[in-house]
Amino acid sequence: MILRRRAVLLLMMLMTAVPLVLAGCTGGPIKRASRPAPVPPKLAITPAPESRNLPTSVEIGTTVSDGKISEVVLTDDKGVRVDGAMRSDGSGWMPSRALANRRTYTAQVTAKNDSGKTVTQRTTFTTMDKPARRTVTNLNVQDKRTYGVAMPVTVSFDSEIPKDARAGVQRRLLVSTDPPQPGVWAWEANGRQVSYRPPDFWQPGTRLNVRAALDGVPMGKGSFGDTDRTGSARIGDHRLFLEIDNRTKQMSVFKDDKLIRKIPVSLGKSSTPTSSGKMVIMEKHESTIFDTTGSPDPYVVQVEDAQRLTWGGEFIHAAPWSVGDQGSRNVSHGCTNVSNANADWLMETTRIGDLVTIKGTEVKLDQGNGWTAWNVSWDEFVKGSALPVPADLKPAPPAPAGPANGGPPAADKASTPTPTPSNGGR
C-alpha cells in the first residue's frame, strides 16, 4: 500500500510540473511595448529675427506640423498689443491695421497639439521709413448700401500694378459673404483694376464684407498702397436685369425673371456706336453735365436721370430731344436714350450693381471699360487671378470635341483700356 501511495504521489507531481515546463518554453510573461512620450509641434515663423526695413503690411507667417497655432501676440516697442487674426488657411497672422513706420515689433507665437504639448517662438523686426511714393486705391463697395445681384467687388488703382506685384496685392483683398458664396479675384490686363465675383450672380439678400488691406503693401516700382479700405453692404431682395436689343431698339426690364416693362431706345449712331456686352450700372445721377470738349464732335449738355455703364462715358439717360427716334433709329453719341418718363421710372427701379446686357451693335465692350467682370465666362474670368484658384472654383475641364458637343466655344477677345472716367456721349 505504501508503494502504491508513493506512485500516485509521484504521478501527481509530474502532472503539476508539466505546465511549469511549458511556461518556461515561452520565455516568461509577455511585456507590452511602452508608448513614446508626447512631443511638441514643430513651428517656424517669419519675419526672421532682427529683420529691418519691412513694409508696414508685414504679417506673421506661420508653418506648423503636428499641431495648430493657439496664440499670436504682437506688441510694439512701447508694449502696446496689436490686434489681428489668423488667416483662414493658417498661413499667417494678419494685423487688423497697418503697422506704424520706423517702429520695432515683437511677435510671440505658440502652437499646441492634441497631446497638450506646446512650443513658442519669438521674433523681433523693424518697419521701414515712410515711403516716398503711394499708389492711390479705390474700393467700389460702400458701407450701408444696397446693390444689385451683379455687383462685382472692384478695387482700382491710379497707376498700373506690375505683374510681379499683383499676387501680393491680391492676398490683401478679403471678401466674406453671408450666406457663403466663394469667388475669385481677377485682374484686367492693364493692371489698374481687379474684380471679385462668384461663379454665378449673388443670392438676393446676401451680405458683403470687404477689406482692401492695402496700406503699406508693395505695389511695384517703389510704390506702396495708400490706405486700408472697408465696406459692408447688402445685395437687394430681387434680381433685376436690363436687356437692350439693337435690332428691335427696345429695352426689356426683368424682375425675378419676369418681364415688367418694355422701353423704346435710341442707341449710338454708326459714327459713335454703343458697345455690346454685359456691363453693370456704376453710378446714378439725377442730373449731370456731359462735356466732350476736345472730341471730334464737342458739346456740353445737361442730362437728367443718368446711369453710368462704362468709364468711357456710355450712360442710360433721359433724352427728350430723341423721343421721336426712340424705338426706330439710332442717333446718340453712344449712350442709351430713353424718354423722360422711362428714365425717371428706371432711376426708381434700378440699383447700382444691376446687370445691363446690350447686343447687336457694331462694336464689342472693351474688357475693363467699366465693371466688366460678367462680360466674360467664368473659365475666362479666373485666368486673370494672380494666385492659384481654389480647386472647388476651377473651371471644369472642357468636354472632348465630338458629334454630341463639337467642343467648347471660342472665347471673345477684347482689348483693355485704361479705366479713366469721362462724361459721356448723349
Automatic annotation (TrEMBL):
<dbReference type="InterPro" id="IPR050979">
    <property type="entry name" value="LD-transpeptidase"/>
</dbReference>
<comment type="pathway">
    <text>Cell wall biogenesis; peptidoglycan biosynthesis.</text>
</comment>
<feature type="signal peptide">
    <location>
        <begin position="1"/>
        <end position="23"/>
    </location>
</feature>
<keyword id="KW-0961">Cell wall biogenesis/degradation</keyword>
<keyword id="KW-0133">Cell shape</keyword>
<feature type="active site" description="Nucleophile">
    <location>
        <position position="335"/>
    </location>
</feature>
<dbReference type="Pfam" id="PF17964">
    <property type="entry name" value="Big_10"/>
</dbReference>
<keyword id="KW-0573">Peptidoglycan synthesis</keyword>
<keyword id="KW-0808">Transferase</keyword>
<dbReference type="InterPro" id="IPR041280">
    <property type="entry name" value="Big_10"/>
</dbReference>
<feature type="domain" description="L,D-TPase catalytic">
    <location>
        <begin position="240"/>
        <end position="359"/>
    </location>
</feature>
<keyword id="KW-0012">Acyltransferase</keyword>
<dbReference type="InterPro" id="IPR005490">
    <property type="entry name" value="LD_TPept_cat_dom"/>
</dbReference>
<protein>
    <submittedName>
        <fullName>Ig-like domain-containing protein</fullName>
    </submittedName>
</protein>
<feature type="compositionally biased region" description="Polar residues">
    <location>
        <begin position="415"/>
        <end position="426"/>
    </location>
</feature>
<feature type="region of interest" description="Disordered">
    <location>
        <begin position="388"/>
        <end position="426"/>
    </location>
</feature>
<feature type="active site" description="Proton donor/acceptor">
    <location>
        <position position="317"/>
    </location>
</feature>
<dbReference type="InterPro" id="IPR038063">
    <property type="entry name" value="Transpep_catalytic_dom"/>
</dbReference>
<dbReference type="Pfam" id="PF03734">
    <property type="entry name" value="YkuD"/>
</dbReference>
<keyword id="KW-0732">Signal</keyword>
